[in-house]
Amino acid sequence: MEQELIKYIEKLAKEPGNDNVLAAWYLIATCSLCSCNQGPMIIYVYRAAIAPYSEDAVSRRLILRRIKEALLKTSVVYGLPRLLNGFYPLIKSIPDEESQDYEAVRHDLKNPYDLRERGEWYMAKTFGKSALDTMFGTLDKYHQDLRKLVIDYIYGVLHSELSVLDPLTTSQITLGSLLPIECMTEVAWHMRGLINNGGSVETVQKTLGIAKEICKVTGVQLRNQVPDVEKVLGRKDIVSESIKEETEGRG
Fold first, then answer.
1. Residues 30, 69, 43, 20: what is their CA dihedral angle, to the nearest 10 degrees?
2. What would you measure as the largest C-alpha separation in the chain, in angstroms?
3. Crossing angle of helices 42-50/2-13, nearest 10°?
4. In tens digits, what is the pLDDT along the chain, a chain of 251 residues?
5. CB under 8 Å to 92, separation ≥6 — which residues?
6. How far is CA 19 from the centre of its chain?
7. Distances (CA, A) of 160 to 35, 42, 51, 152
8. 32: nearest Cα among 224, 213, 188
9. Of 24, 109, 101, nearest to 59 (Cα)?
10. In sequence order, what are the residues at sequence separation of 6 or more whose Cβ sits closer than 8 angstroms to the Cβ of residue 19?
């Protein structure tokens, strides 16, 4: 598995545009690997990403910062233990002190509840206002603590922090993390979210293509059908519709 993965990562790194420090491929691959419970393998992605910058410490630090931020944002999808399984080997693999990144992205955060409005804004941007009304209505009725977790922490503190990763990249890493754990309803939601955050059908397909290949080389078999992006986009408000379908007739 390891050699097959290295071969794929090296191939991916050579694709046109992937030598850009701001490219998304290495972040999608990193997060998909952690979601597949192959966190230690992200060192090969990191090494391939920094390879073009052997004489550019600033770019090496930025790549590391982006990887760490991607892991933090997607840990809510696949869990903290899988993040740590990748994070510790990652920091051990950093080649020199010049490549280290010690920046605390959220250094000025004092109270996460201060970011509630930002979290709501980001969710509305990603899923649409109607979807937000349906989601909040359900959570307010059935699980108010979960509402706080989703809005204040996941979206307020984590996903709406855009100084390192923009909304489109955040959507890509989220989608790439959801596929290996086969949460296909949420895959469909974040397909729509990726488009709302400035992506295209091609961006969705490329993101899923990386995640599928990571699943393949790591032996993760996808047993559920992946939503068709064209059908997803054909549904006006897929998030609201899905929630209503799941909760209809309950309580």
1. 80
2. 62
3. 30
4. 899 999 999 999 999 999 999 999 999 999 999 999 999 999 999 999 999 999 999 999 999 999 999 999 999 999 999 999 999 999 999 999 999 999 999 999 988 889 999 999 999 999 999 999 999 999 999 999 999 999 999 999 999 999 999 999 999 999 999 999 999 999 999 999 999 999 999 999 999 999 999 999 999 999 999 999 999 988 878 888 888 888 875 44
5. 43
6. 20
7. 21, 24, 30, 10
8. 213
9. 101
10. 13, 52
Q: Which two tokens stand for residue 194?
A: 């990726």
Tokens representing 142 are: 């059935």
Helices 42-50 and 57-78 pack at an angle, to 10 degrees, of 150
Report the distance separating Cα 32 and Cα 10, nearest Å: 16
* Residue 88, both tokens: 């510790």
| Site of tokens 């920094």 | 50
**Phi, psi at residue 141, to the nearest 5°?**
-80, -40
Q: What's the predicted TM-score (pTM) here?
A: 0.95
Q: Which residues fall within 8 angstroms of residue 140, CB to CB, at 6 or more apart?
A: 147
247: enclosing H helix or E strand:
helix 238-247
Q: Would you state the structure tokens that stand for residue 195, as one six-digit string? A: 């488009």
